[in-house]
Amino acid sequence: MKTIIKTKTSFEVTIPAGRYYLGDPCYVIRDDDWIPLLENCDYFRNPVGEVGGYQILAFGTKHGDGVYFDKGGRKYGVDAGLIGLVPVAYGGQPDHGNREVEFKSPTLCWNDDGVLHFGVITINTDYSDDE
Length: 131
Prior knowledge:
This protein is mainly beta.
């Protein structure tokens, strides 16, 4: 997951195949790992951080905390202004709308100015966009 491409309004990251929790990582990452993770990735200004040997991907939402929905109508509670992927193997106890997803092959994820894409899953965090 180290490959990061940054354009003016977008970050693109290819993640390895596997099972992940999708949602705000603050609801999955253990308390004693949270600050080291944030410091490791400059508070997710770099969208990939590492903690305990696991890489965590997260993109900032367009409008910070709140509740966001994917195109399938699934709800994601956000309390750290982030939505991303935490490997299931990390452990932790997902909460507040985090859900388990599986990618069968390496998958492109990107943030297009608040519209977050995790493979075929799209979460629009821009309230001003009528999409």
